[in-house]
Structures are given as structure tokens and as C-alpha cells.
Amino acid sequence: MILFGVVFIAGYLFSTLTQQRNGLSHHNLLAAWIGLVVGVYFVWFWTHSGQTLPMKTWCLRVVAANGQPLSAWRAIVRYALTWLWFLPPLALHPLFNLVVPQTLLIAGVWFVLWAATGLSDPQRQFLHDRLAGTRIVDVTR
User: What tens digit of pLDDT does each residue of 86-120 get?
Assistant: First the structure.
């Protein structure tokens, strides 16, 4: 829910500064802006406390593979790699002129397969964490 507020404010700021009159004008630039703002949100929290507010609620923290706090570069790499949950199947949509139901089916299958990488990993880490050299740890009190 917090992220919805961040995205709303970023979108409002963008539309105000660009004097956007409808959702189709500058939509690619808006998407890039929202991606940047969301990236700054995650990178800032991951590098300062290792936790976003929901991660604090769930008693989880992201750390480097060696247990140290994340550097800004490693947090940026992790953020970029988390887009692998969504971008590959969505990139197929325009490449193969798929209809929306086909894209949603492919995205759903991809999402399940990507999530299964966490089950197949001996330390129960997702593939993006393994590739970024990060891991999620339990910080139960």
C-alpha cells in the first residue's frame, strides 16, 4: 500500500510538470519515471536498513550473500534483476503480436516458474537474489 502512494505521488508530479493532458501522451516516459522512482525507493531502504516497511512487518531483511549490509551498487543490481519476474513474458507481447489473454497466460506460467526457483534452491533464495549476490534473512526477535 505504501508503494501505491509513492507511485501516485510520482505520477502526479510527472503529469503536473509535463502538463500531461491524457494517459497516452508521454506514457513511455511516465513508465520510465515510475520505474526510476520505485527503484530509488527500494534501493534507499535496502541500503539504509535492509528492509522496506513490509519487510519489517514480516521480519525479513535483505543482505549481501556474506551477511553484510547491501552496497548501493548491489541494491541497484538486485532491483534490476527483480524485473526478470515480469519483463521477459511482457516483452513477448509486442514481439509476437500476442493478444492480452495469451500474454497473461505466458506471464502467469513464467511467474510460477520463476517462483519455483526459490523452491529448488538449497537456501530457498530466488534466482534474482542468487544472481545479485544477495539473500533474504529472517530477523525474528
Answer: 999 999 999 999 999 999 999 999 999 999 999 98
> Is there a contact between 70 and 78 (Cβ–Cβ < 8 Å)?
yes
Q: Please state whether the predicted TM-score (pTM) of the whole model is above 0.85.
A: yes
* Residues in contact with 47: Cβ distance below 8 Å, sequence separation at least 6, in sequence order: 69, 70, 71, 72, 75
Question: Are 134 and 62 within 8 A, CB to CB?
Answer: yes
Report angle CA 115, 38, 96 to the nearest 5 degrees. 55
pLDDT tens per residue, range 49-87: 999 999 999 999 999 999 999 999 999 999 999 999 999
Element (H, E) at 62: strand 60-64
Cα–Cα distances in angstroms (integers) from residue 44 to residues 13, 28, 92, in the given order: 20, 24, 31
34: amino acid identity, one letter: I
